[in-house]
Specification:
Layout: H1 2-25, E1 30-31, E2 37-39, E3 48-59, E4 62-70, E5 73-75, E6 80-83, E7 90-95, E8 102-109, E9 121-128, E10 131-139, E11 145-150, E12 156-164, E13 172-173, E14 175-182
Antiparallel strand pairs: 1-14, 2-7, 3-4, 4-14, 5-6, 6-13, 7-12, 8-11, 8-14, 9-10, 9-12
Amino acid sequence: MLLKNRLAIGTAILAWLLPATAIKGQPKLSYLFNLECRSATPGVEQPLKHLDRSQSITVGRNSGSEIAYLYNMYAAEESGDILDNSEVPAEVVCILPSGFSQLNLGFGLDRRSKVGDKEDIVLLEVYADEKLVGQKYIRRQENEQKWSVNIQNAQKVTLKADCIHPVWWNNCPRLSFTDMSLN
């Protein structure tokens, strides 16, 4: 009888501990725009702009929900925030809390933007602790791109977007993000 009671108590304790362990073991999920970020773009206080309400964009042939964007200039006309074809790219540096190993990005150029043309090219670079970990060239006609970047043990991550265009007077639309999750 005593053995049976001890076995029942041990089983109850184990059942009580397992859910707590499972919750602790679940991966954390956060978003880059929710972290402590600072601008590295002269004259722009916050080049990574989070949208309180996502808005519909058309990237390539598909539509998606823009949750944030990178820009380096505000154009006073209907075009809104843009990537100016200048010597100063849009650059933001974010401090990473410990425990994140991957940055997941979904991005593209809104085809409906009134800025630029179909020849737009934006260079997106990602740095982990000031070390380049990858770069992508983004064209206006391409569909949304997905990119998972290894940021294991990094203390900060930098996103840098530069408008690269064959005609010097044109600008690029802002770089729209549909995903900026960390896990």
